Amino acid sequence: MATPPDSPIEEVVYELEPARAPKPIPVALEDLCRLTKFTRQEIRVMYRGFKTECPDGVVHEDSFKDIYAKFFPHGNSSLYAHYVFKAFDVNCNGSITFRDLLVTLSTLLRGSVYERLRWTFRLYDINGDGCISRGELGEIVSAVHELMGRRPHQPDDDRKAREQVDKVFAKLDLNQDGIITIEEFLEACLKDDVVTKSLQMFDCL
């Protein structure tokens, strides 16, 4: 029998309150359709897979890192996975629910270039203060290098990483004040054909 459009998907979302056990809250399929660009059928399929892999209804950072490690077995994916996890963890509570996952995937796979860039900015803004510093950009670049199998603290690799950071930072920091705002990030990236084309690769997914 088909599931009624407004029936809840049995997602477990937790409200964490002091001295109380987590309280599961069902999320309606209709709400997930409204929040994302996925169809009801696509959400049902993804939910079945999510529940199989995450029977507790949430993904914690250790499990998230394990998933990344399987995709990048030749590098150290732990640091980069940590930053991506933080960007997925929209409620900043140390766990990713099916709703969190679905909303972010909708942005990355079906969102506009503008929406994807805003998510990318959030990934790079490690401390969440609304701007990207040279240090934050350097941390992400180093994490990507480790992800791809490059060893840290090697003179040549460190030099190349610094050069890459300097080049990218100069390109994004339009007024050269030492920080990259969301406005600068969007303006610089939207003018860059390479960035735009790389983001359009998601369109076929």
From TrEMBL:
Keyword Repeat: yes
Gene3D superfamilies: EF-hand
PANTHER family: CALCIUM BINDING PROTEINS, NEUROCALCIN HOMOLOG-LIKE PROTEIN
PROSITE patterns membership: EF_HAND_1, EF_HAND_2
Protein name: EF-hand domain-containing protein
GO molecular function, one term: calcium ion binding
CDD domains for the chain: EFh
Organism this protein belongs to: Anopheles stephensi
Pfam family for this entry, one: EF-hand_8
Domain EF-hand, residue spans: 76-111, 112-147, 160-195
Domain of life: Eukaryota
Family assignment from sequence similarity: Belongs to the recoverin family.
